[in-house]
Write a structure and sequence with these properties.
- The chain is α+β, with helices and mostly antiparallel strands.
- It has two helices and four strands; from the N terminus they run E-E-H-H-E-E.
- It is elongated.
Length: about 90
């Protein structure tokens, strides 16, 4: 990660330069994490009384992430609409 230096009060402080990650990679990472968590919950975790609630949570979250990706509906920070949902090209 590269850094740029800014001068404040006579001292130099490094400020990291963050690169933009494509939205498709964010969707894939979130979906992969959620599906992996569901498998880990089913295979390795100790069965607790909220097991089926957590499985339902992972199922609904997977559907919502997939539907959001399919409909190409995401928050676009560069839009003129502020924090509203915008149709963006993935």
């Amino acid at each position: 990660m590269s850094c740029t230096c800014i001068r404040k009060s006579g001292t130099y402080r490094p400020r990291p330069v963050l690169r933009r990650v494509p939205l498709r990679q964010v969707y894939c990472a979130e979906l992969g994490f959620n599906v992996a968590s569901a498998f880990i919950l089913a295979a390795w975790e100790t069965r607790r009384k909220d097991f089926w609630v957590m499985m339902l949570h992972h199922g609904v979250t997977t559907v919502l992430i997939s539907l959001s990706y399919y409909l190409k509906c995401a928050l676009d920070p560069n839009s003129s609409h502020g924090d509203k949902l915008c149709w963006t090209a993935l």
